[in-house]
Inverse folding.
């Protein structure tokens, strides 16, 4: 379970998160929507401990992410994150990209790590690209490789930060299909997205962020068909 | 008809000088590169303010002509420290620090060029700072910095011609000795240049080969 309690976060004078409270249960898919600068992506990097927070706390399975005593490297092993820019390691093949962390972080043997990597790469439709370097893949393929790379660590939670935003429109579908597949398999996910149809189809709950606050959260039918907050209504009208 | 007094023994003498040039260059570039990596990484970690004292020292090695550095270092070691160290050791020490001064900037630039987002992706997978440096940052920075490093290594090899001032008989000094004896300066300098080319060419080609291989990744 991920518990986000009254989280505040500022970059200099700019407060990007103004007291966020959110609990995500195991197996749940929560989608976060909202305009640019609403704090959605910052929240994900805070959950993963990549950004410190100013106030409040974030607990992952009861472990406080930002506590000084927390071993962040160990905690991150159970929280996979995939970014808007896929950030492939360009000097490694697809297979090496995926096996690197299991081998070096989890201490797996080469054969075991490769077996897991091959399974995950087949899972995301890249079983034929094992020895290819990332620069020879399309954006969609690189993004799916990044997903396989995160999944190879067998995380309990997956965070997706606008993973289709940097893709050409024709490549968006293949990545969303991969996310849908993960959701159907019961992976606990928090997805920041601008893909409203995806949010409606896949989510258990959808949260709307506006200027650093979580203006509204609810099941997709309610939030999309009967939004309660005026800003949610305005936002949904603008993206329809 | 062209005639020269140059004998095979003279060519062997030149080859020995070339060997000394290679030795001084190899030791200096090796130590200088190791120091450059350490300083370059520390520069990135500590930031410009905390690293300022080291930057100041390295700036001295970059700013003062190598000839002056060699003469002063030799005098300092012999007259102030009163140590009996060979000219070769002094030459390697000075050239190593001289190489490190330039290499630090090359390494710093290479590390800086690795996208922060790539490093963040590595850390998000649970990698420690050391693992991130070892498996992601340094391999990528090496690819970025290689052309500059090859240029530095070739430059150090040519600059090593100055170590004659600390009584090291390297290639150019060997040539000068032969010029004094044979009085055939142009011909001997031509041969000396050919030796330098033979030493440099494989390194330049090796750099080109690596660049080409890595560009296929």
């Amino acid at each position: 379970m991920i518990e986000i309690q009254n989280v505040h976060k500022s970059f200099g004078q700019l407060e990007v998160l103004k007291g966020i409270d959110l609990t995500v249960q195991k197996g749940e898919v929560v989608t976060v929507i909202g305009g640019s600068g609403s704090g959605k992506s910052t929240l994900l990097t805070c959950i993963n401990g990549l950004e410190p927070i100013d106030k409040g706390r974030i607990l992952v399975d009861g472990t406080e992410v930002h506590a000084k005593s927390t071993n962040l490297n160990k905690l991150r092993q159970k929280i996979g994150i995939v970014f808007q820019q896929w950030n492939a390691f360009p000097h490694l093949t697809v297979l090496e990209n995926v096996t690197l962390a299991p081998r070096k972080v989890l201490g797996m043997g080469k054969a075991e790590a490769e077996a897991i990597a091959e399974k995950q790469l087949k899972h995301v439709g890249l079983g034929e690209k094992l020895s290819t370097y990332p620069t020879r893949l399309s954006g969609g393929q690189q993004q799916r490789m990044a997903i396989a790379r995160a999944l190879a660590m067998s995380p309990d939670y997956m965070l997706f930060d606008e993973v289709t935003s940097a893709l050409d429109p024709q490549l968006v579908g293949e990545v969303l299909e991969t996310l849908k597949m993960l959701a159907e398999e019961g992976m606990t996910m928090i997805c920041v997205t601008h893909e409203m149809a995806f949010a409606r189809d896949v989510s258990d709950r959808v949260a709307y962020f506006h200027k650093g606050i979580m203006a509204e959260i609810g099941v997709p039918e309610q939030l999309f068909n009967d939004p309660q907050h005026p800003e949610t209504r305005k936002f949904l009208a603008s993206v329809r | 008809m062209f005639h020269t007094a140059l004998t095979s023994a003279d060519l062997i003498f030149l080859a020995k000088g070339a060997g000394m040039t290679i030795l001084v260059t190899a030791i200096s570039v090796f130590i200088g590169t190791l120091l450059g990596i350490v300083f370059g990484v520390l520069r990135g970690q500590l930031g410009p303010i905390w690293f300022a004292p080291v930057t100041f020292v390295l700036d001295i090695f970059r700013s003062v002509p190598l000839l002056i550095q060699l003469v002063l270092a030799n005098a300092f070691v012999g007259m102030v420290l009163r140590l009996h160290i060979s000219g070769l050791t002094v030459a390697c020490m000075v050239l190593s620090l001289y190489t490190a001064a330039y290499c630090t900037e090359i390494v710093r630039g290479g590390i800086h060029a690795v996208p922060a987002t790539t490093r963040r992706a590595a850390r998000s997978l649970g990698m420690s700072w050391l693992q991130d440096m070892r498996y992601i940052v340094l391999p990528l920075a090496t690819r970025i910095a290689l052309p500059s490093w090859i240029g530095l290594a070739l430059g150090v090899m040519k600059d090593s011609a100055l170590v004659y001032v600390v009584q090291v008989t390297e290639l150019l000094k060997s040539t000068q000795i032969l010029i004094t004896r044979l009085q055939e300066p142009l011909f001997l300098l031509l041969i000396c240049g050919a030796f330098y080319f033979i030493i440099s060419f494989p390194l330049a080609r090796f750099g080109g080969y690596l660049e080409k291989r890595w560009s296929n990744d």
Remarks:
- The interface with chain A takes residues 115, 117-118, 120-128, 131, 135-136, 139-140, 143, 214, 216-217 of chain B (CB under 8 Å).
- The mean pLDDT of chain B is 92.
- Helices of chain B lie at 8-50, 52-63, 66-80, 87-113, 116-124, 129-159, 171-182, 185-215.
